[in-house]
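Figure 6 in text form: structure in, sequence out.
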């Protein structure tokens, strides 16, 4: 799916959770626009609402109020199978602990979303999976089981899986949280390359040094945007 212009548009987004001592206001009124090709890092203290925001962008959590438009679709109005079909075509999810299926090979893990969404004819699925694994730099690991790969290689496999249905939006929650610093940098570099290729990437992170990778840093505090800063330098051009 080719998407240009504003890909994510959020208006007055609010999320309350019920709690033993009354409601917890996790997100308290966020406005945010993200354009195609941006690599946005969402940062902030623990409990500031980062994961809640990301899960609402993915259609995993429903907002209490407000509007979310992703790739032209009002997702706060979608439910059930329509929401699942939309997510499969539009969103690639990347998690801290990779969440690859351990009994499938790396290539089979990448093929799985294609099988579920049927966006690619069956005879083309393995070829596309191999192309994606090549794109993320682990083509030679295609027929191995995930447990035999390093952490960084497993995260690259998970990123290839996230791209399997040509999803234009990648949402990543602490994707480097389980990786050493050199491997984290290479994964951040891969996200920066994918954004430069036109994907839109939103990543929740506790990484401190994002310069040269993320094109924009949005800081949350108490469920609100406290700062929204665009990088001056081109991504990939670390100095
Ligand atoms: N399912 C839930 N039920 C009740 N409260 C929740 C739920 N999920 C999150 N919260 C609360 O909402 C607030 C925001 O949580 P969230 O996980 O979005 O923060 P975060 O910035 O991602 O934190 P962390 O960096 O620790 O992952 C916190 O006060 C949290 O306790």
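Output sequence:
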């Amino acid at each position: 799916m080719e998407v240009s212009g504003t890909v994510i548009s959020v208006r007055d987004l609010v999320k309350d959770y019920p709690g033993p001592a009354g409601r917890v206001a996790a997100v308290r009124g966020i406005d945010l626009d993200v354009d195609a090709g941006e690599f946005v890092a969402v940062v902030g203290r623990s409990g500031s609402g980062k994961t809640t925001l990301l899960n609402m962008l993915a259609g995993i959590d429903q907002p209490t109020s407000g509007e979310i438009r992703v790739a032209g679709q009002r997702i706060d109005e979608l439910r059930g199978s329509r929401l699942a079909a939309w997510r499969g075509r539009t969103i690639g999810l990347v998690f801290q602990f990779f969440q690859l299926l351990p009994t499938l090979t790396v290539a089979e893990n990448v093929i799985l979303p294609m099988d579920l969404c049927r966006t690619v004819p069956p005879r083309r699925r393995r070829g596309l999976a191999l192309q994606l694994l090549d794109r993320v730099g682990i083509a030679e690991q295609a027929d191995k089981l995930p447990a035999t790969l390093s952490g960084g290689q497993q995260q690259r496999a998970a990123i290839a899986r996230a791209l399997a249905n040509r999803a234009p939006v990648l949402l990543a929650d602490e994707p480097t949280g389980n990786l050493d610093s050199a491997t984290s940098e290479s994964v951040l570099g891969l996200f920066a390359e994918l954004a430069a290729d036109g994907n839109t990437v939103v990543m929740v992170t506790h990484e401190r040094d994002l310069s040269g990778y993320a094109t924009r840093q949005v800081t949350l505090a108490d469920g609100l945007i406290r700062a929204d800063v665009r990088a001056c330098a081109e991504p990939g051009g670390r100095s």
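Caption detail: The domain at 36-48+80-230 is CATH 3.40.50.300 (Rossmann fold).
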